[in-house]
Amino acid sequence: MKWTDVQDIAMALTEAHPDIDPQYVRFTDLHRWVIELPGFDDAHDRSNEKILEAIQAAWIEDSDY
């Protein structure tokens, strides 16, 4: 996965952190959790606030909260 694979990342985060309400996740934690995902293979410094916002929004949509 790359930073641009927003939907795939969101689904993986839902599976990896099922008890977390994504709307309250800090971007520092979100960044760390994304780079820790199995299959994530992109430069850690290629993310930005816009990408993290898109991932968080997709994760909110994908979660049960």
From TrEMBL:
Signal peptide: none annotated. It holds the Pfam family Fe-S_assembly. GO terms for biological process: iron-sulfur cluster assembly. GO terms for cellular component: cytosol. GO terms for molecular function: ferrous iron binding. Gene3D superfamilies: IscX-like. NCBIfam families: iscX_yfhJ. This is Protein IscX. It comes from Pararobbsia alpina.
